[in-house]
UniProtKB/TrEMBL annotation:
Catalyzed reactions: a D-hexose + ATP = a D-hexose 6-phosphate + ADP + H(+); D-glucose + ATP = D-glucose 6-phosphate + ADP + H(+); D-fructose + ATP = D-fructose 6-phosphate + ADP + H(+)
Gene Ontology CC terms: cytosol; mitochondrion
Kinase keyword on record: yes
Protein's name in the database: Phosphotransferase
Top-rank EC class of the record's enzyme: transferase
C-alpha cells in the first residue's frame, strides 16, 4: 500500500484506490518532527510573553504557592475538586510519617445543566454535595468553629492571593452566567452560608498546581504537573525574578512561585498550529469560539467530537457506512475519548470489540473495511493530539533548560488511553532529539488522583506558616 506514511498495515486487504481519500487526512493530521519543533519554539516564546508585563495568549498565572512541601506536613483537610466532568470531595489526613497520607473521597457527576446555568445554581449544587459528604463522614468543625477547605477549581483564575481567584474565562464548554470577572471564593462561600455549612476556603488552586505539588511530594524529580483530560494544561515552578509582571510585588530575590500556565490558550491567534477544517468547525461550534485553540486540538473533550465530524463527513461523501443509519452518530458529542481508546485496544483480526463498541454507542454495525478505516482515522486523530501535547511539555522544559526530569500527569485521558503515553513520549523524543539508544530523558509519569493530596498539601503549607506568599 504505497503513499501512506502511518500504520498502513491496518488498511491491509482494502484495495488502494478505495482509500486514496485518506491521504488528505494524513496531510491534515500527521505532524513531522520539524513541525513539532517549530510549534515548540513558538510555544516557548508565548510562555515568555505570558510572564511579561504586556502579556500574550497564555495567561501564565502566579498561584502564590511559593514552595514545595517537605514531605513532613501534617493535618487533616477537606478538599473539593471541580474539574470538567466531576466533583470530587476528599478528606485528606497527612500523617507525621514522611510522605504519608490517607484519604476518603466521593465523586459526584456534575450534571450537564450545571455547566450552562447560573453561578448561584452551580455553587448551591456544590455546597449541597459537600454537605452530603460532611454528613456521611460525620465531619464537624474544628476548634475555631469552621472546617477549612482547599478548593481546586480547574479554570483560569487571576489570583491576588492564594485565597482568591477572579475567573478569567470559562473553558471546556462551560458557560455559567455571573462568574466570569468575579472572585469565585466569596461566591462559593456565600453558597456555604446559604446552606449553613461552617466551611471556610483556605486555598484556591488549579488542578495542575495540585498535581505538581502532589507528584513532587512523592517524587522530587517531578518539575512539571500536567493534566490531560477534558482539558489540557500544565504548571511549573518559576523564579520570581524571571517574571517581569511581578516586578512591583517586592518579592525576595530568591523567591519562586508555581505558575499555572493555562497553556490551553496557546496560539489563540493561530500563527503556528496547523488547523484543519474540522478544527475550525469544533472551535466555531464551541461555547467560546476563538479561545483555547490548542486545548481544542489536544484534549479529551474534543478528540471524540473530531472523530465524529470526520466520520459523518465521510458518510456523506459516500465513503463510509454505506446504506447504514447513522442517526446517533449525528448527535453532537456522541463520541467520547473513551470510544477511541477502547477501539485502539482491539488488536483482533475481525475487530470484534470495536464493532461491539460501535453497536453499543452508536447502534451501528459497520463492515470490516469500514472498521479498519475508522481505526486508522482514530490513530491519526489521537496521535496528533498526543504529539501536540508533547509540544507544551517540551516548551516548558526548554524554557527552564530542564534536560532530564519527570512530569507528573493526571487526567482520565492520560491514565485510561493506553496508547497516549507512548505517542506523547515519541513526540518529546522527536522535539528534543535524545540519543536513540537512551531511555526517555523526560519521563511522563502518571499521577493518579493527585488532586486531593495536592490541595491538602497546599493548604498545609499555608496553615503551617511555611507559605511565604507576598500577595500583590
Ligand atoms: C482549564 C485549566 C485546567 C485544564 C485541565 C483547562 O480548560 O483552563 O485551568 O487546568 O483545563 O483541567
Amino acid at each position: 500500500m504505497s503513499g501512506f506514511r502511518y500504520r498502513p498495515e491496518i488498511l491491509q486487504g482494502i484495495p488502494d484506490h478505495e482509500t486514496t481519500y485518506l491521504k488528505q487526512y494524513e496531510h491534515w493530521f500527521i505532524l513531522e518532527p520539524e513541525q513539532l519543533k517549530r510549534i515548540t519554539d513558538h510555544f516557548v516564546r508565548e510562555l515568555e510573553q505570558g510572564l511579561s508585563k504586556e502579556g500574550g495568549n497564555i495567561p501564565m498565572n502566579p498561584t502564590w504557592v511559593m514552595g514545595f512541601p517537605s514531605g513532613y506536613e501534617t493535618g487533616r483537610i477537606l478538599t473539593l475538586d471541580m474539574g470538567g466532568t466531576n466533583l470530587r470531595v476528599c478528606r485528606v489526613y497527612l500523617s507525621s510519617r514522611k510522605r504519608h497520607f490517607e484519604q476518603i473521597q466521593r465523586t459526584f457527576k456534575l450534571p450537564e445543566e450545571m455547566k450552562t446555568g447560573t453561578g448561584e445554581q452551580l455553587w448551591d449544587f456544590i455546597a449541597g454535595r459537600l454537605e452530603l459528604f460532611l454528613e456521611e463522614h460525620n465531619i464537624t468543625s474544628e476548634h475555631d468553629g469552621t472546617i477549612p477547605l482547599s478548593f481546586t477549581f480547574s479554570f483560569p483564575v487571576k489570583q491576588k492571593s492564594i485565597r482568591s481567584g477572579i475567573l478569567q474565562r470559562w473553558t471546556k464548554n462551560f458557560n455559567v452566567s455571573g462568574v466570569e470577572g468575579h472572585d469565585v471564593v466569596p461566591q462559593l462561600e456565600a453558597a456555604f452560608l446559604r446552606q449553613k455549612l461552617p466551611v471556610r476556603i483556605v486555598a484556591l488552586l488549579n488542578d495542575t498546581t495540585g498535581t505538581l505539588i502532589a507528584s513532587h511530594y512523592i517524587d522530587p524529580k517531578v518539575k512539571v504537573g500536567s493534566i490531560f483530560s477534558t482539558g489540557c494544561n500544565a504548571a511549573y515552578m518559576e523564579e520570581c525574578k524571571l517574571i517581569p509582571k511581578l516586578e512591583n510585588a517586592a518579592l525576595p530575590d530568591k523567591a519562586s512561585v508555581i505558575i499555572n500556565t493555562e497553556y490551553g490558550a496557546f496560539d489563540n491567534d493561530r500563527k503556528v498550529l496547523p488547523l484543519n477544517p474540522f478544527d475550525w468547525q469544533i472551535d466555531g461550534e464551541s461555547a467560546r469560539p476563538g479561545t483555547q485553540i490548542y486545548e481544542k486540538m489536544v484534549s479529551g473533550l474534543y478528540i471524540g467530537e473530531m472523530l465524529r465530524l470526520i466520520l459523518v463527513t465521510l458518510h456523506e461523501q459516500g465513503k463510509l457506512f454505506k446504506g447504514l443509519d447513522i442517526t446517533r452518530l449525528r448527535h453532537e458529542n456522541s463520541l467520547e475519548a473513551s470510544f477511541l481508546s477502547v477501539a485502539e485496544l482491539d488488536v483482533s483480526e475481525d475487530l470484534g470489540d470495536m464493532r461491539e463498541e460501535f453497536t453499543e454507542s452508536l447502534s451501528l454495525s459497520p463492515d470490516l473495511n469500514d472498521l479498519k478505516v475508522c481505526r486508522y482515522l482514530i490513530g491519526l486523530v489521537a496521535t496528533r493530539a498526543a504529539r501536540l501535547y508533547a509540544c507544551g511539555i517540551a516548551a516548558i522544559c526548554k524554557k527552564k533548560n530542564m534536560k532530564r526530569c519527570h512530569i507528573g500527569v493526571d487526567g482520565s485521558a492520560f491514565n485510561k488511553y493506553s496508547a497516549f503515553k507512548g505517542r506523547a513520549a515519541q513526540g518529546l523524543r522527536d522535539i528534543l532529539d535524545w540519543p536513540p539508544d537512551e531511555l526517555d530523558w523526560i519521563a511522563l509519569n502518571p499521577s493518579e488522583d493527585g488532586s486531593g493530596v495536592g490541595a491538602a498539601l497546599a493548604a498545609a503549607l499555608i496553615i503551617e506558616g511555611d507559605h511565604k506568599a507576598n500577595p500583590l
